[in-house]
Structures are given as C-alpha cells and as structure tokens.
UniProtKB/TrEMBL annotation:
GO terms for molecular function: heme binding; iron ion binding; monooxygenase activity; oxidoreductase activity, acting on paired donors, with incorporation or reduction of molecular oxygen. This is Cytochrome P450. The keyword DNA damage does not apply. InterPro entries: Cyt_P450, Cyt_P450_B, Cyt_P450_CS, Cyt_P450_sf. GO terms for biological process: antibiotic biosynthetic process. Belongs to the cytochrome P450 family. Keywords: Antibiotic biosynthesis, Heme, Iron, Metal-binding, Monooxygenase, NADP, Oxidoreductase. The keyword Acetylation does not apply. It comes from Micromonospora pisi. Pathway: Antibiotic biosynthesis; mycinamicin biosynthesis.
Length: 398
C-alpha cells in the first residue's frame, strides 16, 4: 500500500470537523490517510459507501487494528482475555457469540431496567440541585451510564468505585495511554473474581445470565465472558456519555429548542433519533480490515488495508437526508448509521435509546430553566477521531 499520498485530514484542521467531512464527501469520499499511530487507513465518508462497507463480507474484524494491539502492552493472558469479543471476530465465531449474548441481553431485561435507570438518574439530579454552575458531563452524563452498566452486569455497589476508576482509565486510554495497561490488568483480574463469585451465587443480573447462556451444548468460555464485560465498557460507556452530552448541548444551544422540549416532552423519542443522526457519539471508530481485495465507491482497497467508516459524516450526507446540516426535531425518522449497520449493529442500542430518553426527560423536567454557562463557541470537543464527545459542558441549572 502506498503511503506517499496519505495525510491526516484532521491533523492541522482549524476548520469545524463537519466542514472537513463535508469537503471529503464532495472531493475525496474514499481517502487514504495517516493515523496518529503512523499506520495508513482508508476513510469512508459518504452514506451509501459507508453502508456498503459495513456489509461487505471482505471487510472484517481483527484483534490488532491500525497499528494498535493489546499484545504490545499487557501480558498475553490479559491480552487474550480482552480480545475475544464481538468487535474483534468474524463469522462464524461472531454469529455464535452474538447469539449467546443476545439470549441473555434481551429486550425484556433492558425494559425491566427502566425504573432503576430513572432512579439512578433522579439521584444524580438531586445532587445537582442548588448548584449555581456545574459541568453536566462530570455530574450527570459520565456517571449515569457507568452506574447503569455496573448494575446491569451485577458489579456489587462496594466495588463500583474501583470499577469506575478502571473504566475511566480505559475510556481515556486514547489520550492517556500510560494509564491503560495497569487498568486492563486490574479489571481483568477483577472480572475473573466476579465470575467465580457469580458462578457460586448466581443472581438476576446480566453476568449471571451470560454465564448461564446456552445454545444447545455451547456456552461462552471464560475469555469470552471477560471480553464481553470489557466490550460492554468500551462500547457502552463513553458512547452513551456522548449521546447525553452532545444531545444536551444541542438542545441548550438554542434556548427556544430547550423550551420546546420542556413544553412537549412527547418529542423526546424522535429528538433522540435526530440527535444521534446530527451529532452521534461515534465518529469513525467503526474499523474494518480488508480480508481480501475489495472496492468501495469505485476505489480499489487492497488486501490487508485498514478501513475507517465515518458514521458522523455519513449521517450528514445530503444525498441521504434532506437539509442534512439542520437539526430538526420534527424530522420523520429515517434510519441512520449512528449505531452502525450489518452484523455488528449495536447490541446495546435499545439500552442506549432508553438511557437517552430517560436522561432528556429527567433533565428537562427537573431543570426547565437550564442554560449554557459559556458561549457555545467556547465548548470544546475532545481530541481524537474515533468518538465524538465534549471535554466539558458548563451549565447553569437555573
Ligand atoms: C457495537 C454505537 C451504546 C454494546 C456498536 C457499533 C456502533 C455502536 C456504531 C458498531 C461498531 C462496528 O461496526 O464496528 C453505539 C452508540 C451507543 C452505544 C452510538 C450510545 C448511544 C451501547 C451500549 C452497549 C453497547 C449501552 C451495551 C451495554 C455494543 C456491542 C456492540 C456494539 C456489544 C458489538 C456488536 C457486534 O459486534 O455484534 N455500537 N453503541 N453499545 N455496541 Fe454499541
């Protein structure tokens, strides 16, 4: 693969990310670029190409992607305990694991969790009551999803602080790589112990459900179980933080918009879909490796090449969505790519939607006068091109 023409279109960009992506969609919709690791990748930015790439069986998953491998940073047993999950494997292994996990992570389990998520959310909002100014990410958007994940999995309350600390280190591993190996080692050791405890005393939680999950004689192995818990953390935590954070920013950015949702809470389910489309939590962390030569939008992709699909860009493609750059809470729902597409379509989408809806209901009901504490231009996005989220969201609860 030639590297001479490769650049990173985001590296020196002072322009708004969406402007960069719009230019790429227009001029170089399948572009070879250099990643911060030094590896090269093909970046896909148009909706139709993105959708095709995500269903192309020649584009698969591997355990080391784009120059990043756990084997370079932790002992082999730890690396293998976090590498046997759905986002590192292909059919038929993927089909088998997804079927087993889906049998335990059911719509019924998610729906039954609603009152508990509401309670956790109200409790966090109680703590915000009376503050003149606070960071909504710190106070609400960050803690809520990790508390939900801990309770769902069955992490005992006395362990949740450590679990959250390791999860923080893993979530921020892209910006602070030094914190990653010790957190991985600690969390794998912890999950091993938790598995042993759940085997001895099964409870009505997802981890016990995953241990019990069977498909004829088939069950998940220990490495697969540990990897699954790990995947829930990396796939389900920061993404949901970003849904709540980005969504609240967009609703507050125009005070009439916030007022409208306060007055018409029935808009919220539709609003969540539009917020996911307009400023979704995942920029381009949907990576694939070409298992055989293939083609995307007329561009030949050689075997072994690394491909990044920008969901954020695809969801702003004017060929798919009318007035794509307008946030329109009344937009009729048209399926978008925020949760991916094809066999790896987000398994946690029903939970994420539920959390988003509960969060926006609770925030608008409890804080109808909330406003941004700084001009919208001063609110910063986190660096990195994989996810799309805020560093902080200063608000005056009102
Ligand atoms: C996969 C987005 C929340 C669990 C994915 C993928 C995307 C995504 C784009 C596909 C990745 C790919 O194709 O490479 C999101 C967004 C969320 C969210 C935007 C929040 C708004 C969650 C939650 C959980 C979760 C809360 C679990 C509790 C998973 C799992 C997969 C996945 C297990 C892998 C599925 C597979 O490979 O078959 N997610 N996710 N996600 N997500 Fe989510």
């Amino acid at each position: 693969m030639s590297t001479s023409a490769a650049v990173n279109p985001f590296a020196s960009a002072k322009a708004d990310l969406h402007e960069v992506l719009a230019n790429l969609r227009r001029d170089r919709p399948v572009m070879e670029m250099t990643l911060p690791t030094g590896a090269t990748a093909w970046l896909v930015t148009r909706y139709e190409d993105a959708q095709r790439a995500l269903t192309d069986p020649k584009l698969g998953k591997t355990t080391s992607a784009g120059g990043f491998s756990y084997r370079d940073m932790v002992p082999p047993d730890v690396a293998s305990a976090v590498s046997r999950h759905m986002l590192t494997i292909n059919p038929p292994d993927h089909t088998r694991i997804r079927r087993l996990v889906s049998g335990a992570f059911t719509a019924r389990r998610v729906a039954a969790f609603r009152p508990r998520i509401e309670e956790l959310s109200e409790r966090l909002l109680d703590e915000m009551e009376g503050s003149d100014r606070l960071d909504l990410i710190d106070s609400f958007a960050f803690p809520l999803p990790i508390q939900v994940l801990c309770e769902l999995l069955g992490v005992p309350s006395e362990d949740q602080a450590s679990f959250r600390r390791w999860s923080d280190a893993i979530v921020t591993g892209g910006v602070n790589p030094a914190g990653l190996p010790p957190a991985l080692i600690a969390i794998v050791a912890y999950i091993r112990e938790l598995l042993a405890a759940k085997r001895e005393r099964p409870a009505d939680d997802l981890l016990s459900g995953l241990i019990e999950a069977r498909d004829n004689d088939d069950r998940l192995t220990d490495d697969e179980l540990i990897s699954m818990v790990y995947l829930f953390l990396i796939a389900g935590h920061e993404t949901t933080v970003n849904l709540i954070g980005n969504g609240t920013l967009l609703l507050l950015a125009e005070p009439e918009r916030w007022a409208r949702v306060v007055a018409e809470p029935e808009l919220i389910p539709n609003a969540v879909e539009e917020l996911l489309r307009y400023e979704g939590p995942v920029q381009s962390s949907t990576f694939r490796t070409a298992m055989a030569p293939t083609e995307i939008g007329g561009q030949a992709i050689p075997e072994g090449a690394f491909v990044l699909v920008s969901l954020l860009s695809a969801n702003r493609d004017g060929d798919r969505f009318a007035n794509a750059d307008q946030l329109d809470l009344d937009r009729p729902v048209t399926p978008n790519l925020a949760f991916g597409h094809g066999i790896h379509y987000c398994l946690g989408a029903p939970l994420a939607r539920l959390e988003g809806q509960i969060a926006f209901h609770a925030l608008t009901r409890r804080f109808p006068k909330m406003r941004l504490a700084v001009p919208v231009e001063e609110i910063a996005w986190r660096p990195g091109m994989l996810l799309r989220g805020l560093t902080a969201l200063p608000v005056i609860p009102g």
